User: Which sequence fits this backbone?
C-alpha cells in the first residue's frame, strides 16, 4: 500500500490496548518512538518514575537503548510497558506498526494508557476531518496540496510556541523522510536567531519560507514581523478547527498537525517526482542497527542502487595547484559570494 492510501485509511485505525495503566506515568522514546513520545509529552510530562508505569517507546534499531531505560525503570520500582515496532517477544509489551505511521499508533496507545481517552478520541475526530479535506481525489481546494506547492523549491523554517516544540520535530522528520526535503527547525528563543541569521549574508533569506505551526504567542508574533523583512514568505499553519479550545496546542491538536504534515510531505514528494515512501537506504540502516545485517550492508550497492546520490562536481585532491602556482578562483563555485554592485 502506498503512503497516500495509508494516510487516507489512518484515522480510526488504532487497534491497540485502550485500558489505562496505573500512575504515576513516565515516558521515554528512542528510535522511531522518539517522535511519538515527544507528541505525547503534553499528556505524560515526566521522563522517569520510581513507581507506577514507565512507558518506553522504541523501534528495533534502538533496542539497546530501550533495554537500558527499561532496566533502569524496573530497578527504580516502576512497572515497564515496552512499546516497539519489533524485537524479541519478551521485550515487547505493545507491538505497533513500523514506518511513518508508527507515530500515530504509538501516540494513541500512550494517550489511552495514560488515562486520556477523551483526547485520543478528539484526535481521531480531527484526523478524520483532515482526511476529508486532504484526500488524493481532491485536486482543488486541498490545503495539503496547496501548501506543498508553496514549499516546492524552497527551504522551510519551522517554528512553534513554547510547549509545542514537538511540532518542528514532527515536520522536520516528515519533510525529510517523506517529502525528501531538508527543513530547519528554529528551537529555543526564536528572536535571537531570526534577528541575526540573515544579516551577514542577506541572500541567505532567498528561497526560504517560515512555517509557524500551531497556536502562536507574543514572541512568535514579533519573530514573524522580523522574518517578513528577511525571507520570501511567512505562513501560519494553525491547528485544525474543531479542537478543544482549552487545549490549543494540546495533544490532539499536535497529533492532527503531525497528520497534516504527513499529507503535505507526501504531496511535496509527488511534486518532485519522487516516491513518498521510505528510501531503501533507511531500511538498510535500521536493519544494520537492529543487528539483522552486517555494517557492510550500508555501503554495498543493492540491486544496482547508487548509495551515493550526489555526484561530486570535482575532487579537490585532484585539482590542487602545483607548489608555487596560484589556484584559479571560480566565482560560480562560490555560492556564498554575494554579487558585487
Assistant:
Amino acid at each position: 500500500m502506498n503512503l497516500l492510501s495509508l494516510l487516507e485509511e489512518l484515522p480510526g485505525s488504532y487497534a491497540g490496548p485502550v485500558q489505562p495503566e496505573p500512575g504515576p506515568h513516565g515516558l521515554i522514546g528512542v528510535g522511531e518512538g522518539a517522535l511519538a513520545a515527544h507528541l505525547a509529552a503534553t499528556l505524560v510530562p515526566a521522563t522517569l518514575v520510581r513507581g507506577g508505569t514507565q512507558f518506553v517507546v522504541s523501534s528495533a534499531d534502538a533496542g539497546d537503548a530501550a533495554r537500558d531505560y527499561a532496566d533502569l525503570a524496573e530497578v527504580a520500582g516502576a512497572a515497564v510497558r515496552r512499546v516497539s515496532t519489533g524485537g524479541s517477544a519478551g521485550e515487547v509489551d505493545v507491538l505497533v506498526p513500523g514506518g511513518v505511521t508508527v507515530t500515530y499508533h504509538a501516540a494513541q496507545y500512550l494517550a489511552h494508557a495514560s488515562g486520556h481517552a477523551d483526547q485520543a478520541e478528539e484526535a481521531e475526530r480531527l484526523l478524520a476531518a483532515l482526511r476529508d479535506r486532504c484526500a488524493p481525489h481532491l485536486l482543488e481546494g486541498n490545503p495539503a496540496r496547496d501548501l506543498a506547492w508553496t514549499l516546492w523549491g524552497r527551504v522551510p523554517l519551522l517554528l512553534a510556541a513554547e510547549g509545542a516544540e514537538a511540532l518542528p520535530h514532527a515536520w522536520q522528520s516528515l519533510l525529510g523522510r517523506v517529502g525528501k526535503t531538508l527543513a530547519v527547525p528554529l528551537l529555543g528563543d526564536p528572536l535571537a536567531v531570526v534577528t541575526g541569521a540573515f544579516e551577514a549574508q542577506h541572500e541567505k533569506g532567498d528561497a526560504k519560507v517560515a512555517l509557524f505551526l500551531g497556536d502562536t504567542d507574543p514572541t512568535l508574533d514579533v519573530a514573524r514581523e522580523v522574518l517578513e523583512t528577511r525571507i520570501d514568505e511567512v505562513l501560519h499553519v494553525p491547528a485544525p478547527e474543531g479542537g478543544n479550545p482549552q487545549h490549543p496546542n494540546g495533544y490532539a491538536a499536535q497529533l492532527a498537525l503531525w497528520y497534516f504534515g504527513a499529507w503535505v510531505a507526501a504531496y511535496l514528494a509527488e511534486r518532485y517526482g519522487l516516491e513518498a515512501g521510505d528510501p531503501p537506504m533507511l531500511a538498510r540502516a535500521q536493519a544494520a542497527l537492529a543487528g539483522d545485517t552486517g555494517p557492510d550492508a550500508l555501503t554495498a550497492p543493492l540491486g544496482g542502487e547508487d548509495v551515493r546520490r550526489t555526484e561530486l562536481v570535482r575532487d579537490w585532491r585532484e585539482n590542487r595547484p602545483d607548489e608555487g602556482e596560484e589556484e584559479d578562483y571560480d566565482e560560480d563555485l562560490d555560492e556564498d559570494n554575494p554579487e558585487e554592485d
In short: Residues 310-317 have pLDDT under 50 and may be disordered. The domain at 139-271 is CATH 3.40.50.10490 (Rossmann fold). The chain is about 35% helix and 10% strand. The radius of gyration is 22 Å.
